Write a sequence for this structure.
């Protein structure tokens, strides 16, 4: 069996499962946010549920339109907060405890190897980096999960993705996942599991692994997963009292497809509008002037990402007329970035530094684009209207390419500076 | 379920930001959401759509975000069914959960034109294009998907489990 099949079998109380069959799994964690929880709460009530299955296994994170952008957003956040209090939900945080859901949940040790997690947010697949099964669902599924502590799944076939070779300077996890999406397309892993492996993955730290699994959904995948190893286990140390369940695919596990990517010749990638599959090497981008840069999001808002961007920005200045918005992924990361001098470096180089929020990634607030404006962002989607006006454009890239582009005023790699 | 309506046709990879842009998500009111349905890729859709109309699209319909607001907006706009080559998985689950009929039928998705009058019959598994005279058949749902439709969505199914019906 593959690791995904083993994770689902275990949570279904079965010895084995095969792709295509339906299973009902017990859930270790159910997540919803300020956009999806309000509907989930309504549906939870309609179901006639009076309590959540386990207040310790629910997480409600208000991160999309926070700090509340308007009265409607504030009303939705309040609804989530009131529900969390009423149900005794342990994992609801304000201000200095908060941040972007897919950054703070692993940071707080709420997901560990072996877990099965659903979240009413498509990027819930991020937690696969810990060797968990994690997938996005809608609000009604999240409501049922909160009420019952269970969810049904169709066991997915698995695509094996093997990254070989050695990464070139300035090439990072974001480039690895963009390259894959460029190869297999935005529906290339539809309904399937993406299992990432190979020497490049083995040598990658947790921040990079989260970035890769975060974008599994952009290839249509049900989940992305990386088998836990020493890196995983040392990362969760001190974050949880629970015992991790370390699973791995069998040698004779069956894959529906194997994709091999040789990283030795891989250069930083840029995804052109309006799909994440429109990738090119940064050297093939041509002359693309930009109005805005966003460095952050659940994809690349970790301290390692900010350090990478800072390395490019150090001693340089953002180009005239360009707005470069840096968004630490959590209050804790914001604090660490401040202590390490990164925030000062960003401010001195002409960047704006925002409080943690999903904000601009989905055109909610804190950096919305006007008609005809163009941004390069470390976010995960570049659909029509994603960051604002339907006639604006978003290019996706890694923190170092975003930072270099901010300096150049057009899309550029660090080596172009 | 049997429904007849005019077709609104779209291409591949229609994402949930196109179906309902994030800037409108600070509400859960279906009518308000319906008022912005498909806005960023088809600004006239809301003006054009009549109760019973049918959306026909290509591959991977509903890709992207998990927002249930997307099928809610489509349903509240009066759309009776969505026919596509295939669907993104979260959208697929969401549609079944809230009772928006969705049909995977590559032949119909390819052949039916914008503006055609079409009848969908989910019990019979047939699609009739009255404008061209073409007929198509599709596989009925199986497993949990069929049970969900039978129960009328996920809420009644959970009510059954909790004994709250």
């Amino acid at each position: 069996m593959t690791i995904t099949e083993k994770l689902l079998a275990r949570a279904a109380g079965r010895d084995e499962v095969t792709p295509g069959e339906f299973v009902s799994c017990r859930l270790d964690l159910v997540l919803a946010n300020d956009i999806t929880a309000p509907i989930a709460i309504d549906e939870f009530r309609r179901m006639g549920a009076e309590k959540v299955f386990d207040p310790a296994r629910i997480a409600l994170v208000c991160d999309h339109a926070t700090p509340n952008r308007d009265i409607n957003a504030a009303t939705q956040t309040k609804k989530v907060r009131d529900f969390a209090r009423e149900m005794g939900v342990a994992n609801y945080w304000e201000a200095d405890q908060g941040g972007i859901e897919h950054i703070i949940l692993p940071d707080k040790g709420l997901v560990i190897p072996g877990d099965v997690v659903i979240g009413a947010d498509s990027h819930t697949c991020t937690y696969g980096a810990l060797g968990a099964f994690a997938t996005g669902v809608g609000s009604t599924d999240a409501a049922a999960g909160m009420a019952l502590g269970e969810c049904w799944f169709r066991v997915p076939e698995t695509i094996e993705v093997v990254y070989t070779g050695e990464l070139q300077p300035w090439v990072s996890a974001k480039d690895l996942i963009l390259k894959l999406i460029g190869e297999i397309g935005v529906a290339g892993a539809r309904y399937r599991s993406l299992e990432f492996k190979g020497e490049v993955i083995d040598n990658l730290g947790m921040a990079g692994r989260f970035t890769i699994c975060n974008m599994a959904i952009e290839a249509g995948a049900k989940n992305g997963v990386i088998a836990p190893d020493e890196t995983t286990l040392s990362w969760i140390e001190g974050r949880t009292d629970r015992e991790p369940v370390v699973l791995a695919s069998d040698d004779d596990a069956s894959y529906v497809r194997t994709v091999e990517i040789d990283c030795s010749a891989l250069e930083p990638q840029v995804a052109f509008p309006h799909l994440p599959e429109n990738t090119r090497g940064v050297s093939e981008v041509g002359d693309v002037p930009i109005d805005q840069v966003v460095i952050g999001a659940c994809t690349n808002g970790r301290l390692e990402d900010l350090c990478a961007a800072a390395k490019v920005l150090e001693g340089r200045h953002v180009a005239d007329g360009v707005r470069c918005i840096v968004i630490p992924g959590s209050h804790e990361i914001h604090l660490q970035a401040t202590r390490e001098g990164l925030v000062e470096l960003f401010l001195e180089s002409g960047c704006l530094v925002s409080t943690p929020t999903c904000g601009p990634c989905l055109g909610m607030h804190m950096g919305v684009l006007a008609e005809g404006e163009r941004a390069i962002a470390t976010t995960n989607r570049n659909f029509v209207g994603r960051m604002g006006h339907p006639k604006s454009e978003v290019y996706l890239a890694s923190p170092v390419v975003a930072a270099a582009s901010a300096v150049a005023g057009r899309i550029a790699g660090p080596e172009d500076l | 379920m049997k429904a007849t309506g005019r077709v609104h046709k779209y291409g591949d990879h229609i994402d949930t930001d196109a179906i309902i842009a994030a800037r409108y998500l600070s509400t859960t009111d279906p009518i308000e959401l319906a008022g912005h349905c498909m806005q960023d890729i088809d600004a006239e859709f809301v003006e054009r759509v009549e109760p019973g109309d049918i959306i026909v699209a290509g591959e991977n319909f509903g890709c992207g975000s998990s927002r249930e607001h997307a099928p809610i907006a489509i349903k509240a706009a009066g759309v009776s069914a969505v026919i596509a080559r295939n669907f993104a998985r979260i959208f697929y689950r969401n549609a079944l959960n809230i009772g928006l009929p969705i049909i995977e039928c590559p032949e119909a998705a390819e052949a039916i034109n914008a503006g055609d009058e079409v009848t969908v019959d989910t019990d019979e598994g047939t699609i009739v294009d009255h404008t061209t005279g073409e007929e198509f058949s599709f596989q009925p749902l199986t497993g949990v998907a069929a049970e969900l439709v039978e129960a009328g969505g996920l809420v009644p199914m959970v009510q059954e489990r909790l004994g709250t019906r």
Summary: Chain B has eight helices and seven strands. The radius of gyration of chain B is 15 Å.
